[in-house]
Amino acid sequence: MENIGTIVFDLGADLWKELLYILPYLAFGVFLEATIRTFKWHVKIRKQLVRFGLWAIPAAALLGLASPLCACATLPLVISLLIAGLPLAPAMALLVTAPIMSPSAYSMIAGMLGVDWANIILVSALFMGLFAGYVTLYMRRYGFTEETVFREALPAGDFHDPDYPVESLRCECGQQLSHRVDRCTHNRFLVFLARFWEGTQKIGKFALIGLLVEVVVMALVPNAWITNLLEGGEFWQTLSLLAATVPMHLPQVTAASMLYGYYLPEPGQLITLAKGPGVALLIGGPVTALPVMAVLYKMFHKRVLALYLGICVSGTLILALFWKWATL
To answer: Is the pTM of this model over 0.85?
Structure first.
């Protein structure tokens, strides 16, 4: 029992130490996202997407980089934009880009893995958005249009309506603390504080899960095989990690937190994280979120899910090979 108590105490101490290290980066990222949400900058840009014409794909990719929405929140938004007349290509660009990068993700990757890695993921996220958009645009000639991708026509109405008949698309943002504060006070500063608290809970939860997994694995599991995968630059290692991330729900912050203990000097610089495996986890993991794929499977024709997965997997492999070559 004493040994178990000592192990639990040591795990708690390591977790607390690592949490304190990432706390400033978490706070800064949440601050940026709370500011964007308070002033609704991403909403203002989003409303203009249907008017961008030829520039809609790069505009959607850039919106995805700045959006504070996670993958599960982005999909209902994408569907509402499709109904509003946005072509499928920019919609796919937004859906692929948003899970990979956000202000909080950049801040936390920079803090946990270094600015170089944050910049690599930023550039990679932009590439993935453009790649998804233009591949989908090319596939229009094969029937991938916004009019034909849904299994059946969606009921008319507002997703924000609590009585909207499609439960998986029904938005419950009106129940959020920030919306209640806005309705009661109309005070922008109080709304900002509420959104800061919401962001802290959401992002902190994913970061804590990643840190907990990393601390437990490093302490209790013989992990030489994991470090060999992460520091190896062979193609099969990248492919193995990518295959492992597809069935996992691995948000960006969780993936970065899991890698943190293997990489930074505190609590110990154990490996040099190879670009291929790093990209496989930090790009391939977030874009193949299980809740998103479940909704795609349920509401869209199967070929749309196949296109989405094909774009995510092939784009990740292209990036892994590129960054490996670029850093030789």
So the answer is: no
